[in-house]
Amino acid sequence: MRADPIDRPADLDVVRESYDQVADNYAHMVATTGMGDIRRHPWLKASIDAFADTVGELGPVLDVGCGPGTVTGYLTERGLDVSGVDLSPRMIENARRLHPHCRFSVASATELDLGEASLGGVLGWWSLFNLPRAVLPQVLAHFAYALKPGGHFIAGTHVGDEDAVRTEAYGGVPVRWTTHKWRPEQLVDLIEQAGLHPVAELRLPADEWSGPGVVVMAKRPA
């Protein structure tokens, strides 16, 4: 049995180019300000730690939209068999430079060729919000297909109702992408429709870097 193909977002190439443009600035800001570094955010770190404790014995873990590899590197230090993928080649170059002991490759969330029940865990850690609203359910279904029974998925994303168009980011670099925000109950509903069972939810207020957010962890039923 093969997973159903996923629609290719119309703006995929533009989004990839935009993240290539901001990749160096983003990696520098993570290192110098703590933005995006879970080690400096106790509740986010606790969420990732709970995920690691849950999936550690279940098999390979895939960090989808890994950026410069911050979470991939952390989970590797925790002893997990984890690899990272990202749409942006420049993000992957930074990830390989910063975390040379980890495995990284270039791929969109919509282009992954994942085997059925091949993964113990999947992360979509603030990395799925650029997916069009009609495409995200397809990607979630593919993740559910790839998880082993008992395997877990964790996602973090921006909370809201709107589709926010970004024209600059991370130090004023010109970009072109849309941030599709979701209400927590909408995201949970999509995860359930994909065939996963939500097991935990963390709602986060706005901070100096971002608006409100939500983290959801779910498992594939055994």
Report strand %.
Answer: 25-35%
Mean pLDDT, as a whole number?
95
Order of helices and strands: HHEHEHEEHEEEHEE
Largest sheet: 7 strands, mixed
Roughly what percent helix? Answer: 25-40%
| Computed CA radius of gyration, to the nearest angstrom | 16 Å
- End-to-end separation in angstroms reads 19 Å
Low-confidence segments, given as residue ranges, are: none
Structural class: alpha/beta
What does the overall shape look like?
globular
How many helical elements?
6
Strand order of the largest sheet: 3-2-1-4-5-9-8
Number of strands: 9
Walk me through what this model shows.
This is Class I SAM-dependent DNA methyltransferase. Keywords: Methyltransferase, Transferase. InterPro entries: Methyltransf_25, SAM-dependent_MTases_sf. This protein has 222 residues and is of the alpha/beta class. Helix content is 34%, strand content 28%. The chain has 6 helices and 9 strands; from the N terminus they run ααβαβαββαβββαββ. Strands 3-2-1-4-5-9-8 form a 7-stranded mixed beta sheet, with helices on both faces. It has a two-stranded antiparallel ribbon with strand order 6-7. The longest helix is centred in the first third of the chain and has 22 residues, at 12-33. The chain is globular, with a radius of gyration of 16 Å. The two termini are 19 Å apart. The model has no long low-confidence stretch (mean pLDDT 95).
